[in-house]
Amino acid sequence: MLLRVHNLVKRYTEEAAVQSVSFDVNQGDYVAIIGPSGSGKTTLLSLLTGMLSPTEGDILYDNRRLSSLNQRELAEIRARDFGLVFQFSELVGNLSIRENILLPGLFTRKFSNAEYQRKCDYLLGHLKLESIQHMIPRELSGGQIQKTAIARALINEPSILLADEPSGDLDPENSYLVQLLLNEFNKKNLSIILVTHDMKLAFDAQTIYEMKSGKFDQVIKGK
Ligand SMILES: Nc1ncnc2c1ncn2[C@@H]1O[C@H](COP(=O)(O)OP(=O)(O)OP(=O)(O)O)[C@@H](O)[C@H]1O
Ligand SMILES: [Mg+2]
């Protein structure tokens, strides 16, 4: 078991944004979470990254309780094993697109520099970002920023990708490029937890959960 989520609750106010959610993710699983705006999807993903602390319940990653790790241990797992794509991804403003994508490698050094350059070229090519790779974020469109954030999340070949609406700013053609890329990495054993309103992406998953008022209301597909 890669990730085990048990009775997770998050209360910002009296009402719980996440209410007793439990599910498991094995290495190579592809899970999609759909549901209306405000149902708790982003809150759930933030809890899974360890950036938000749960009010109740547990998250076990690789048999380690996220809430019992210290900041350094958590940062290490996040950098090495997690690929993160947020709803409003922030790139480093004074670095080029290429440099932004390569940045996670500078911290973890999981691969050699030559391998990082090769992986970066591959991702830039696949996502059709080559021609803008030397531009900086403020010169880009929302969709180009989103694709850059996806490439940055994949450069380290994480164990698990946690992605919040990764195609939210993309046209159908670019969504399709992202869809192909996610499937390709999933075949190479990347686990994916994807929050999306895009049913084309959701239906690639083995399991689709629907979130409603903080609860996993229904398993639409899968186990
Ligand atoms: N930092 C916060 N403080 C207080 N309440 C919050 C906070 N973040 C989210 N909420 C509340 O928690 C609930 C769930 O929000 P969340 O962002 O998780 O929804 P979502 O499913 O991701 O919605 P969307 O599809 O619009 O992105 C909402 O009612 C929201 O107002
Ligand atoms: Mg959200």
UniProtKB/TrEMBL annotation:
SUPFAM superfamilies, A to Z: P-loop containing nucleoside triphosphate hydrolases
A GO term for molecular function: ATP binding
Coiled coil: none
Alphabetical keyword list: ATP-binding, Nucleotide-binding, Transport
SMART domains: AAA
Cited Pfam families: ABC_tran
All residue ranges annotated as the ABC transporter domain in the record: 3-222
Similarity field: Belongs to the ABC transporter superfamily.
Name the UniProt record assigns to this protein: ABC transporter ATP-binding protein
Source taxonomy: Bacteria, Pseudomonadati, Spirochaetota, Spirochaetia, Leptospirales
